[in-house]
Amino acid sequence: MISKPEVPRFIVLLVGVVLLVFAFLNAYLFLQEDLSILSASGLEELFGEALGPLIGACIRVMYLGIMGWIGSTVTIRGVQLLTSPKPEVKPEAVPKVEPVTKSPTSSEQPSAKTKGKKNK
């Protein structure tokens, strides 16, 4: 069963894969149709006939590149989210506090107030 924190991770991965599939299907259909650039007469017609197929191919390649880049970026993020270590919440250990009892010892030195009184 998928836990609640993993649901957004799978959604991001699914969106990335759908974008990639859409990009490649759309690019395939785009490459199948004939894209022609219409031009007027004279010099424009000459450049239109000579550069039209080249410009059409460049438009198709740029479209495919951008769609594939976006889809692959989202897919990579989804995979990173799924494979990243999940943070574990550990209960913080509270140190045990023991009461301090002071026992008189012979090694204790008298304080400054008692020194002054003894010397007088």
Question: Mind sketching the topology for me?
Answer:
Layout: H1 7-32, H2 43-83, H3 112-119
Helix pairs in contact: 1-2
Provide an overview of this structure:
With 120 residues, the chain is mostly helical. The chain has a domain at 1-83. The protein is 62% helix and 0% strand. The chain has 3 helices and no strands. The protein has helices spanning 7-32, 43-83, 112-119. The model has no long low-confidence stretch (mean pLDDT 76).
Q: Helix/strand-derived class?
A: mainly alpha
Unreliable residue stretches: none
Global morphology = rod-shaped
Radius of gyration from CA coordinates? 38 Å
Characterize this entry briefly.
This protein has 120 residues and is mostly helical.
Attribute tags:
single chain; 3 helices; rod-shaped; 120 residues
